Amino acid sequence: MTTFYNQLRAKLMDNNITDRMEKVPYRNLPKKWSFIALVFLLTFSFSQSAFASTSFLPTQAVDTAAGEKLFKANCAACHKLYKPATGPALFEVGDKYDREWLYKWIRNSQELVKSGDATAVKLFNEYNQSVMTAFPTLTNEDIDNIIAYTYTKKKTVAPPPVDPATAGGGGISNNIILAILALMFLMLIIVLVLVNKTLRRFAEAQGVELEEKEKSTPIWKAFVENQFLVLSTSIFLLLAAGYFAYGWMSQIDVNQGYAPVQPIHYSHRIHAGVNKIDCNYCHSSARKSKTSGIPSLNVCMNCHKNIGEVAAETLAEGQSEYGVDYNAEIQKLYAAVGWDEATQSYTGEEKPVKWVRIHNLPDFAYFNHSQHVTVAGVECQTCHGPVEEMEILEQHAPLTMGWCINCHRETNVNVADNEYYEKIHEELSKKYGKERLTAAEMGGLECGKCHY
Amino acid sequence: MASNKKYWKSVEELNENSSIVETLKQNEFVEPIPTDDFLGDKETLEASSTTRRDFLKYVGFTTAAASLAACEGPVIKSIPYVVAPDEIVPGVANYYATTIADGFDFANVLVKTREGRPIKIERNDLANHGGSVNARVHASVLSMYDQYRLQGPKVNGEDASWDELHTAVAGKLNETAGQDVVLLTQTFASPSTSQLIADFKAKYPNIRHVIYDAVSSSFAADAFQAKYGTRALADYDFSKAEVIVSVGADFIGDWQGGGYEAGYAKGRVPKDGKMSKHYQFEANMTLSGANADVRVPVTPSDQAKVLNALMGGSASGLADNVAEAVNKAKAQLAKAGAKGVIITGVQDAQMQEAVLNYNESVGSEVMDTANPRMTAMGNAADVANVMNGVVSGSVKGLITVGVNPVYSFPHSEFAAAYENLDFTLAFAMKEDETASKAKLVAATPHYLESWGDAQLKKGVFSLMQPTIRPLFNTQQFQDCLVQWTENGDSYYNYIKDMWSGTILADGGSWNQALHDGVYESAVEITTDADTAETTESSTSNGALSTTQGGMELTLYTKTGLGDGQQANNPWLQELPDPITRTTWDNYVTVSAADAKDLGLENWNVANGGLNGSYVNVKMAGVTIERVPVLIQPGQAKGSVGLALGYGRTDSVQSEMQTGVNAYRLYNNFSTTQGGVTLEKVSGEHEFACVQLHNTMMGRDIIRETTLEIFNTTKKDKHGEYAWNPMPKVSKDHQEIKVTDPGADLWDEFDRSIGHHFNLSIDLNSCTGCGACVIACHAENNVPVVGKSEMRRSRDMHWLRIDRYYSSEDSFADDLEKKENISGLGSSLSEFNEMESAAANPQVAFQPVMCQHCNHAPCETVCPVAATSHGRQGQNHMAYNRCVGTRYCANNCPYKVRRFNWFLYAENDEFDYNMNNDLGRMVLNPDVVVRSRGVMEKCSMCIQMTQKTILDAKRDGRPVKTNEFKTACSAACETGAIQFGDINDHDSEIFELKENKRMYHLLEAVGTEPNVFYQTKVRNTNEA
After folding, report:
1. For residue B580, what is the DSSP state?
2. CATH number attached to the domain at A64-149
3. A97 to each of A66, A102, A104, A134, B101, how far by Cα in Å?
4. For chain A, which residues make up each domain, given as ranges?
5. Among A399, A410, A451, B162, which residue is least crowded by beta carbons within 10 Å?
6. Burial of A227 (0-12, 13-18, 19+ CB in 10 A)
7. A141: pLDDT strictly greater than 90
8. Which of B124, B114, B118 is nearest to B140 (CA)?
9. In the predicted model, is pLDDT for residue A174 greater than 90?
10. What is the pLDDT of residues A81-106, one digit of tens each?
11. What is the mean pLDDT of each run of 10 residues along chain B (1023 residues)?
C-alpha cells in the first residue's frame, strides 16, 4: 500500500527518492591500530598536563582546581576559554586587564559601565550590550583562582596518523594470508602426488606387484538405479528448497540492523550513553503523540549553543574509533540551523537536515508512541535496543507483526494508578481469574486496533 | 448404425458450386489472415536490428532486474523542523475556531489541522447561532487545496507583482475619478470590512458599493427593510414551533442562508406525546417537502394564492385538494397561536411583508426580528441597475470582489460589455469566468488563509483566523483596502483595533474571542447595508401572479454545489442529491404527468444506469440546449425545476464542467419564472444516479407510524408495541423472538466488559442534508470515483442516505396494498405497480453505513479472515490482509461494503484530489489510503474511538460520558446520528437503545447490528 503521507513529505522536500537503501559495512579497524592510537594518545595527554603551568604568578598561592570549579559553576554559561561566546574568550584574561578593574567588573559590571569607565563601556558595546551577571559574593581570592584557571593551556591531541594505504587494509592482509595458505595447500598436494608417482615407479622398478582394485559400479549409477532413493531424495530436496525459500522471502524488507549513513554523524552513544541525556528530552513528542518525533534543530541548539566543540579526548576517540571529526559534525549542525559562531547569532539561513528514516512502519499499521511510552511505561530500549551504546543508530527490532504480537501476548498491562483501567481491569480479572492481564487479553490482538 | 444424414455448417454448403466451401475445405479461413496489418510489412521487419532472440533477452533481463530491485525498500527521508513552532506536536491535531463567509455559506466552524495543514471542518459547539455547517462547508477545506487557484495577481493577463497591481489600480482609480465606478461585492457580513469600504468610498467618492448575492434573498430583505427600517433577514427558531406552514420556502435547504434544521429537528422528535406539524406548499420536491407531514404540490403562481388564503383571504381559484390542505393548515395555525409560523419563498416583497405582518400579529415566538440575520444583504434592483449600466456603457469601471457576474448574471450581453470596459478589477480566488476577462486580477486567499470578522446574526460576532500560511501569492481584499486607504499596516491590526474599540469595549478579551470564534455583544456597528445605499424603492416583485402561458420554472440550489462557487470540488460533485440521488449533473425536473404529455422518459439500462431524454428549455428569448430531464415524483404539474450553480467552465477541471448554466434564466433575480417551454430533442442522457430502486414496496426497511398510534398504543403480550414489532422465528413449532438466544446459531461474545459502541439514527430528525457524507469523506480518505463509475454503482461512500418514495399516497397505504395481494396474477401486477412512485409521494430518508453486526455475515465468508470482530462492537477490516474475493460484499444484507475496483489515488484515470500534491494535503494521516483490489467500509471511525480511549488513558481517567464521537455523529447538525458506549449506562446512547422507537435494520436476518434506528413518527393529527 502506498505510503502517501510520507511520500508526499519526501517528495515536497526531496525529489531524489529513487536511490536504494545501502547497508553500512562494518568499519574494520584492526585492533592493532586502535591500540597504537591509545598509547599515542595517553603519552601525549600526559606530556600536555605537565605543561599546564602558570605563567602568571599571583602574590599569594592560588588554587587552580578551585578556580576551575568556580569557572564551570559561574562563568561557563557565557564564557569559553579559547573562543568568544556570549562574552569574550577568557584565556589569559589576567594579562589583558588590570587586576583591580577585573575585581570591580566581575562583582558588578553595570556599575562600572554607568560610571563611564572607558574600557568597560567599550567592552559592553562590543558584546551587543548584553549585561553580565553580577557576582558580588566572589572574594578577591576566588577571582584570583578563576583567573589562574584561565591560564590553562588548550589541550591539543594530535590525531593519529592515518595512512591511506593501510586505512582500509584489514581485508587485504587477511586475503594475503588466505592466499598464502591456499598456495601452501596446493603445493602440498602436488608434492604428495609427486611422491606417490615416484613410489609407484620405485615399486615397478623393484618388481613389487600392486593389487588392482576390482571395478565396482560407481555410486552415482547405483543411486540412479534405485528409484526409491531418487524419489525420496527429490522430495527431501523440494521440501528443503521450500523451507529455505520461505525463510528467505520472510526476511524481505525486514530491515533489522539497518544503519544508514546520516547527513550528520550523530552519536547516540555520546548523548544518551556518556552524557545520560533522557530520550524524552529530545524525542519529547513520544510522550503525547503517535510519533516520537525527530527533534527539531532548535532543540539541539539548547545545548550546542554553548558546546561548539567536544572535549579533546572525545575528539581523538571519534577520529580513531569511528573516523569521524565530531567538531566538523557540530559545524554541520550550525550550518543547518544558521548559527554564526563568530557573532553568536542566527543568520536566518536555514538548511533543514534530511535524515534517513530508519524505522519504517508501513502505512497500514498504526503505531502510537504515547500509548507505549506514557500509558504502558515501556522503556525505549525494549524496542529500540541499547541505543545508548550505538555510535550509529540501527534498527534493533525486526518490526514484523509477529514481533508486535509476541510482546502483546507476554506483556502485562500497566494498570497501576490509572483510573481508566480500574473498572475494566476488575471485571476482566474476574473473568479470566487472574490478577495480571496481558495486552492480548485486553483486546490488543484485534486486527482493527492497529489496522485502519 | 450409420446414418446418411448430411450435417451442414452453413447455408453456403448447400450450394454445391460455392467457391467458399471449396476454400474452407483447404483452409481454416476463407480469406488469409491479414498478418501484415499488425506485424507491419516484411521489409521493416527485416530491417529491424532487434531479433526475436534479442527481444526475449531484453524481456528476461528487465524482468529479472525489476524483481531484484523490488527486494530493497526505498530510502525514506525524514525532515524535521529547523525551529519547531511551539503549538505544533507532530502527530497531534490542533483545532482553530474560524468563520466561513463566502457570500453563500455563513457559519462558525472549527478547523482541524495536522502539522499545520487544515484537514477537516467541524462544527463549533460554542456557537449557538453558528449558521449552517452543511455539506458545502464541510467540503470547503478541499477547495483550498484546489490546483486551479490563482497563484498571484495579474495585470492585463500577465503575471505581475503586487506592487505593479497596486500601481495599476491607483492609476485607474485616478483616471476614472468622477465617473461611475461600481464596487460589486458579495455579502461580507463583516463589520470591519464595511468600515474599510466606507473609508474607501470617502477617498474615492465616485465609487458606488453594490452588494450582489449570486442567489438573492432580496425580496425578503426588502420586506424586512420596509417594515423594520434596517436591511436584514428575520431569523426563525423552529424548535419553538408547533405548526410550521411553508409556502415555497425550502428552509431545510438553502432558504435565506439555511441552517434552520437543528431547531426544526428538535421539534420533530416526539416528546411528551407532542411534535410539531409541518405543512409544505411547493412546486419542486425539496428537502423541506420531503420532511413535511403534509406536502402539497403547488405551482409558483398558485403559491401566492395559497399565502393569501392562509392569511385570511379566499381560497378560490385553488384546486380542491390544495384548498382543503390550506383550510386544515389555517385551522391548525389558529389553534397554535404564538406557536405557529408561516414562512414563504414567494418572490415578492409585498407578500413577504404580509407574512412578516401575519407572524407579528399572532405574536409568533418562532420569528426573531429583534436580532435578525445579517447575511444575504444584496438588493436585486441595484444589481440589475449595475448589470444594465455595464451593458449600456454608463458604468465606467467595475471592481468585483468574491462574485462572478460574467457567469451568474442573466443578461446575455453582459460578458461582451464587461470585456470592453476599460477598468475591470476582479478579486477572485480562481481565474473564473469574470477574472479571466478582467484587466486587473487580484488573487485572494481562501477563508482558511485569511483574517476577518463577521456578524452573522445581530449581536453575535465572530472572527476568522488563518489556519495555514497562504499557499500562493495572494492578498486579501481587505488588506488591499487597508493599503489604499492608508489605514495602518495590516488588516489584522485593523480588525484588532476596531474590535477593541467597539465590540470588545465591554471588557472582552481579544484572545478569548479568537479562541472561541464567537463573541456576543449588543454593540451597534456598521453593516454591509450601511455602505451600499439603495437607489431604488423596495417594491420589488418577481412573483408570478398570473400564468404567462407555458410552464413555470423554479430555480433552486442543490445541497452539493449551492451557488456554484465550489464547482471544482470533486467531493461536492460526487455527493448524491438527497432527493434525486443523482450526482455530477443538473437537470430539468418535471412531473410524471407533464413528462407523459411531452413524451419525455427516464429508463434504466442493463448496467443499472439511469438514462433520460433531452429537452431544449426556452424562455423569453433564451434557449438552453440539451438539458437532461429527470422525472421527479412530487413535482407540481405544470412546473419544472432546474438547479443553479452548474455549467461552470473557467478554471474548472474538464471532468467537473458538468450541467448547464441556469443563471441565464434567473431574470430579475427571481427564482420563479413563467412562460417556459420544453422541447424534446433527440439523444439520451446518461445520469449517474446511485439509487436504482426508489420505492420501499411495503418492506420493513424504514419503520413508520403516526403520532396518534404512537401515543395511544399499549404494549402487547410480548411486551412490544404493534407499530414496532420484533420479528419471530419458529423453533420446535413455537414462535420465539429472533433475538432469543434459542434462535442463535452462534457463540455469543461477552461484550459487557469495556466499551461497546452503538450508533443510533433517528429517522425523525434526519433531514437528509448530506453533511455526514462529506464529513465521512474527509475523515476516512474516501476516494472520488467520477461520473462513469458512479453510474455503474461503484460509489465509494461509506455512508449513503437512502431515499424512499411511497408508491401509494403514503407508506401506510403501500403496506396495506402489499398485505392485500393474493394470488400470482395479483402479485405480478401489483408489485409491478408498487415499483413506481406516486405523483405526490411520501418521502423518507435513511442513512445506511456498515451496521457492525455482532453476528456479521461478512466475517464468516472471508477466506483470509481479513474482516473480523472486535470486542468493542466494531467490525474490523484489515485492508492489508484482504485479497479481494468480494464474498463479504455479496453476503452483506445491507450492501454497505465498497470495493476498490481501481487504484483511485495517484492514478491519472481518476484525476481528482488524490492525484495531485495539493489535493493530497487534505488526507487524514491517521487513516490509510486503500489500494486497488481491496474491500473497504465504515469502520465506525475506529481511529477516533481509539484516540478518545488513549486520551483518557494518558490522563489516567475514565472516558467521559458522551465523549465518544464518529465523524458522522459530530457533523450531524440535527443530532439524528448519536454515537456512544452502551456499557456506560449514563450515556445518551444507552437511553436511545432503550427507547421504544428503537429497531434494527432487517432484524429478521438475525445479524444483531450495533447500529440501530428510531422509528419515524409522522404527525397526521388534524386540528
Report:
1. T
2. 1.10.760.10
3. 22, 7, 11, 18, 68
4. 64-149, 173-202, 220-254, 400-452
5. A410
6. exposed
7. no
8. B118
9. no
10. 777 777 788 888 888 888 888 888 88
11. 67 74 73 67 70 85 78 82 90 93 91 94 83 90 93 92 93 89 92 91 90 90 88 90 92 89 90 90 93 92 89 82 90 90 90 91 90 87 90 91 93 90 92 92 94 91 93 94 90 92 87 92 78 60 64 92 92 94 93 92 89 91 92 92 92 91 90 90 92 85 90 85 88 87 80 90 92 94 93 93 88 83 81 83 93 92 92 92 93 94 92 92 93 93 94 92 93 92 92 92 90 92 73
Q: What is the pLDDT of residue B41?
A: 66
Please report whether residue B1014 resides in a domain. yes
Q: Which three cell numbers stand for residue B776?
A: 465521512
Instruction: Name the least confident of A135-144, A318-327, B488-497.
Output: A135-144
Q: Which among A4, A336, A370 has CB closest to B923?
A: A4
The confidence score (pLDDT) of residue A329 equals 92
Q: Domain containing B594: what range?
A: 551-689
- Judged by CB atoms closer than 8 Å, whether chains meet at B69 and A364 is answered as no
Q: How many CB atoms sit inside 10 A of residue B394's CB?
A: 12
Q: 3-class SS at A122?
A: helix
What pLDDT score was predicted for residue A16? Answer: 41
Nearest in space to A143 (alpha carbons), one of A105, A185, A182, A194: A105
Looking at CA atoms only, how far is residue B93 from chain A in angstroms? 9
Residues B545 and B670 sit within 8 Å (Cβ to Cβ): no
Give the whole-angstrom CA distance, residue B870 versus residue A368. 19
The nearest CA of chain A is from the CA of B264 a distance in Å of 36
Report how far residue B395's alpha carbon sits from residue B381's, in angstroms, rounded to the nearest whole number: 15
Q: Which three cell numbers stand for residue B410?
A: 442573466
Q: Does B881 contact chain A (CB < 8 Å)?
A: yes
Residue B733 within a domain: yes
3-state secondary structure of B40: coil
Number of H helices, E strands in chain A: 22, 3
> Chain B partners of A6 at a C-beta cutoff of 8 Å?
76
Same domain, B577 and B723: no
**B729 and B589 part of one domain:** no
If one compares A250 and B18, the residue with the highest pLDDT of the two is: A250
Number of compact structural domains in chain B: 4
Residue identified by cell 482493527 is: A448
Contact B742, B728 (CB under 8 A): no
Q: Which residue of A has its CA nearest to B779?
A: A452
Same domain, B327 and B362: yes
Q: Where are the beta strands (DSSP E) in B388-487?
A: 397-401, 423-428, 440-443, 452-457, 460-464
Q: Parallel, antiparallel, or unpaired for β B397-401 and B423-428? A: parallel
Closest listed residue to residue A293, CA positions, set B84, B119, B953, B467:
B84
Q: Which of B344, B372, B400 is the last residue of a domain?
A: B372
pLDDT score at B541: 64
Kind and range of the H or E run holding B844: strand B843-848
Say whether B72 and A21 touch across the interface (CB within 8 A).
yes
Strand, coil or helix: B971: helix
Interacting residues of A122 by C-beta distance below 8 A, sequence separation 6+:
none
Q: Does B950 touch chain A (CB under 8 A)?
A: yes
Residues of A in contact with B71 (CB under 8 A): 252-253
Q: Would you give the end-to-end CA distance of chain B in angstroms?
A: 91
A333 Cβ neighbours under 8 A, 6+ residues apart: A264, A297, A300, A301, A304, A339
Q: Which of the listed residues B329, B350, B372 is the one where a domain comes to its end?
A: B372
For residues B121 and A6, which has the higher predicted lDDT (pLDDT)?
A: B121
Instruction: Quote the mean pLDDT of chain A.
Output: 81
The answer to whether residue B76 sits within a structural domain is no
